[in-house]
């Protein structure tokens, strides 16, 4: 009911405000011939309308800007909530998994140490040494290490380091100017044998070792706290904990744009060297 009253009141006020602008046109037209009525009335009325409608147009424009700003704010808030829920669910899932498995922290440490020892043994058998300047990568089938390794979408400069890490494990991700590698051979071995994009489905992909001393492009060690504070942050510059946990877990190191062939040593498929 109140909306109806306000509408009538607004129309009434507009009519009163328009009356002075339209009235002189009608008065002048009484003493002119019929042929002169249309142009005189039209020009005067348009000018009057323009003068009156300008503040009204600006007012509606400001409303549109405010509404657009409000929707943008709502969208950002919803995005943050979804991200928070994702982080929470991920943390809860990890807790439930640990609790339900009945493993103690000591058991987990032993299990991890066994995997590391296994990885070291494999590298020793292959005659390969691992150090602070060595990283690993699981190759896609369309990548040829003899020609070098190249970023999937080097033209997508707008994709941040945090954005690459957050979306890199999704099939819908179109790529970025960064190339993912890991400091851990154990992580590479895990990713080569289990498809993280398909619920851990078994696979057998090639692994390469990369010598960072021969990499000519810039690279980022995402396990470094200083690098995390600078790059693994959300849109507000706050720590993006979900992305940091993933970077630490995967021991991720990103290389920009390309890795030259002379920096790459092909290790092979797990089925070939784990016999």
UniProtKB/TrEMBL annotation:
Protein's recorded name: DUF7587 domain-containing protein
Annotated DUF7587 domain residues: 158-264
Database matches in InterPro entries: DUF7587 (IPR056009)
Keyword Magnesium included in the entry's annotation: no
Record's keyword terms, sorted: Signal
Superkingdom as given in the UniProt entry: Bacteria
Matches recorded under Pfam families: DUF7587 (PF24494)
Keyword Hydrolase part of the UniProt annotation: no
Signal sequence, renumbered to the chain: 1-22
Coiled-coil residues: none
